[in-house]
Protein backbone atom coordinates (compact mmCIF):
# COMPACT_ATOMS: atom_id res chain seq x y z
CA UNK A 1 0.00 0.00 0.00
CA UNK A 2 0.87 3.64 -0.40
CA UNK A 3 0.70 5.52 2.89
CA UNK A 4 -1.32 5.17 6.08
CA UNK A 5 -4.80 6.63 5.87
CA UNK A 6 -5.01 10.11 7.38
CA UNK A 7 -8.34 10.58 9.16
CA UNK A 8 -7.91 14.35 9.01
CA UNK A 9 -8.06 14.63 5.21
CA UNK A 10 -10.76 16.88 3.82
CA UNK A 11 -12.85 14.09 2.27
CA UNK A 12 -12.84 12.18 5.56
CA UNK A 13 -14.27 15.32 7.17
CA UNK A 14 -16.92 15.57 4.46
CA UNK A 15 -17.79 11.87 4.91
CA UNK A 16 -18.15 12.41 8.67
CA UNK A 17 -20.33 15.48 8.04
CA UNK A 18 -17.85 17.77 9.80
CA UNK A 19 -17.62 20.11 6.85
CA UNK A 20 -20.32 20.73 4.25
CA UNK A 21 -20.32 19.58 0.65
CA UNK A 22 -22.79 19.98 -2.16
CA UNK A 23 -23.85 16.34 -2.20
CA UNK A 24 -25.40 14.81 -5.30
CA UNK A 25 -25.55 11.10 -4.46
CA UNK A 26 -25.07 8.78 -1.51
CA UNK A 27 -25.52 5.09 -0.90
CA UNK A 28 -24.15 2.42 1.41
CA UNK A 29 -20.70 2.45 -0.19
CA UNK A 30 -20.29 5.78 -1.90
CA UNK A 31 -20.69 9.56 -1.59
CA UNK A 32 -20.62 12.02 -4.51
CA UNK A 33 -20.44 15.83 -4.30
CA UNK A 34 -19.56 18.80 -6.47
CA UNK A 35 -15.90 19.82 -6.63
CA UNK A 36 -15.32 23.11 -4.82
CA UNK A 37 -13.23 24.43 -7.73
CA UNK A 38 -14.93 23.04 -10.84
CA UNK A 39 -12.76 22.59 -13.93
CA UNK A 40 -15.76 21.97 -16.23
CA UNK A 41 -19.49 22.83 -16.22
CA UNK A 42 -20.00 19.50 -14.44
CA UNK A 43 -17.25 18.44 -12.03
CA UNK A 44 -18.31 15.88 -9.46
CA UNK A 45 -16.13 13.86 -7.08
CA UNK A 46 -17.13 10.30 -6.24
CA UNK A 47 -15.55 8.76 -3.14
CA UNK A 48 -15.82 5.33 -1.58
CA UNK A 49 -16.86 5.60 2.07
CA UNK A 50 -14.09 3.25 3.19
CA UNK A 51 -10.69 4.56 4.23
CA UNK A 52 -8.67 4.09 1.03
CA UNK A 53 -5.85 6.39 0.03
CA UNK A 54 -5.35 5.13 -3.49
CA UNK A 55 -6.48 2.69 -6.09
CA UNK A 56 -3.78 0.39 -4.74
CA UNK A 57 -5.46 0.28 -1.30
CA UNK A 58 -8.93 0.04 -2.75
CA UNK A 59 -8.18 -2.80 -5.14
CA UNK A 60 -6.31 -4.74 -2.46
CA UNK A 61 -8.62 -4.23 0.53
CA UNK A 62 -12.14 -3.36 -0.60
CA UNK A 63 -14.78 -6.07 -0.84
CA UNK A 64 -16.27 -6.99 -4.20
CA UNK A 65 -19.47 -5.30 -3.06
CA UNK A 66 -17.64 -2.03 -2.33
CA UNK A 67 -15.86 -2.10 -5.66
CA UNK A 68 -19.04 -2.88 -7.54
CA UNK A 69 -20.95 -0.25 -5.58
CA UNK A 70 -18.36 2.39 -6.39
CA UNK A 71 -18.35 1.51 -10.10
CA UNK A 72 -22.13 1.59 -10.25
CA UNK A 73 -22.25 4.90 -8.38
CA UNK A 74 -19.98 6.53 -10.96
CA UNK A 75 -22.29 5.37 -13.73
CA UNK A 76 -25.34 6.51 -11.82
CA UNK A 77 -23.94 9.97 -11.09
CA UNK A 78 -22.92 10.52 -14.72
CA UNK A 79 -26.36 9.41 -15.88
CA UNK A 80 -28.18 11.63 -13.38
CA UNK A 81 -26.00 14.59 -14.35
CA UNK A 82 -27.14 14.14 -17.96
CA UNK A 83 -23.67 13.36 -19.27
CA UNK A 84 -24.25 10.07 -21.02
CA UNK A 85 -25.28 11.24 -24.46
CA UNK A 86 -22.57 13.87 -24.98
CA UNK A 87 -19.92 11.93 -23.06
CA UNK A 88 -17.68 12.78 -20.16
CA UNK A 89 -14.38 11.91 -18.50
CA UNK A 90 -13.60 9.92 -15.36
CA UNK A 91 -10.17 10.62 -13.92
CA UNK A 92 -8.13 9.46 -10.96
CA UNK A 93 -5.07 11.26 -9.71
CA UNK A 94 -3.06 8.71 -7.75
CA UNK A 95 -0.01 9.41 -5.63
CA UNK A 96 2.88 11.75 -6.23
CA UNK A 97 3.32 11.34 -9.95
CA UNK A 98 -0.44 11.37 -10.40
CA UNK A 99 -0.68 14.75 -8.68
CA UNK A 100 -3.10 13.53 -6.00
CA UNK A 101 -3.78 16.26 -3.45
CA UNK A 102 -6.44 14.73 -1.22
CA UNK A 103 -5.30 11.35 0.19
CA UNK A 104 -8.70 9.65 0.02
CA UNK A 105 -9.41 7.81 -3.24
CA UNK A 106 -11.74 9.77 -5.51
CA UNK A 107 -12.95 9.70 -9.08
CA UNK A 108 -13.37 13.02 -10.84
CA UNK A 109 -16.28 13.17 -13.31
CA UNK A 110 -15.95 16.01 -15.83
CA UNK A 111 -18.56 16.95 -18.40
CA UNK A 112 -20.68 19.62 -19.98
CA UNK A 113 -18.13 20.75 -22.57
CA UNK A 114 -15.75 19.14 -25.05
CA UNK A 115 -12.82 18.09 -22.89
CA UNK A 116 -10.13 17.67 -25.50
CA UNK A 117 -8.08 14.59 -25.92
CA UNK A 118 -6.01 13.63 -22.89
CA UNK A 119 -4.01 10.47 -22.56
CA UNK A 120 -1.17 11.50 -20.30
P1 LIG B 1 -6.90 15.61 -6.49
O1 LIG B 1 -5.86 16.54 -6.99
O2 LIG B 1 -6.57 15.06 -5.14
O3 LIG B 1 -7.27 14.55 -7.48
O4 LIG B 1 -8.23 16.47 -6.40
C1 LIG B 1 -8.74 16.99 -5.25
C2 LIG B 1 -9.98 17.78 -5.65
O5 LIG B 1 -10.68 18.09 -4.48
C3 LIG B 1 -9.67 19.11 -6.35
O6 LIG B 1 -10.32 19.14 -7.61
C4 LIG B 1 -10.22 20.16 -5.39
O7 LIG B 1 -10.81 21.26 -6.05
C5 LIG B 1 -11.23 19.38 -4.59
N1 LIG B 1 -11.42 19.85 -3.23
C6 LIG B 1 -10.44 20.20 -2.35
N2 LIG B 1 -10.98 20.56 -1.17
C7 LIG B 1 -12.33 20.45 -1.31
C8 LIG B 1 -13.42 20.69 -0.43
O8 LIG B 1 -13.27 21.10 0.72
N3 LIG B 1 -14.66 20.46 -0.93
C9 LIG B 1 -14.88 20.02 -2.20
N4 LIG B 1 -16.16 19.83 -2.58
N5 LIG B 1 -13.86 19.78 -3.06
C10 LIG B 1 -12.61 20.00 -2.62
From TrEMBL:
It comes from Tsuneonella deserti. A motif (Histidine triad motif) lies at residues 104-108. It comes from the Bacteria. PANTHER family: HISTIDINE TRIAD HIT PROTEIN. The lineage of its organism: Bacteria, Pseudomonadati, Pseudomonadota, Alphaproteobacteria, Sphingomonadales. This is Histidine triad nucleotide-binding protein. Signal peptide: none annotated. Residues 10-120 form the HIT domain. InterPro entries: Histidine_triad_HIT (IPR001310), HIT-like (IPR011146), HIT-like_sf (IPR036265).
Amino acid sequence: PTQPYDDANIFAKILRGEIPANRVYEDEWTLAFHDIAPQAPVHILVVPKGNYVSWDDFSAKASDAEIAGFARAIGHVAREAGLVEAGYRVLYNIGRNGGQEVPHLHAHIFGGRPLGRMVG
